[in-house]
Amino acid sequence: LAQIEGISLVEGNFIDHILGRSSEGVKGIIAEQDDKNQSINIKVEVNIIFGTNIPSKAEEIQTKITEEVTKLTGLHVASVHVVFKNVISAEQAGK
Description:
Blueprint: E1 7-8, H1 14-18, E2 29-34, E3 39-49, H2 54-73, E4 76-88, H3 90-93
Parallel strand pairs: 3-4
Antiparallel strand pairs: 1-3, 2-3
C-alpha cells in the first residue's frame, strides 16, 4: 500500500498479523483466514486524499493487496473490502 498514491496508510505490519505473529491487531486491517478453503478475506480501512477518484483507488488497492498477499503467503484472497474512513488533505497524508 505504500506504493499507492492518494491514500494515507494505516500503521502496523500486515503480514505479521495475517500469519499470527503478533498478538495485537493491526489498526485498520482485519484478516479472516478460512483454513478449510485455504483462503483469506481482508478488510482494510484507509484515509483518502481529497480529489482522488474513490472507485479507481479502491480497485487499485484491491488488486495490489490480492497480488502481494498471494505472493507472500500462497493463500487465495477471496475478498478485499476497502473502507475509506476519512477524506484528508495532501498535507495530512504527508505527516
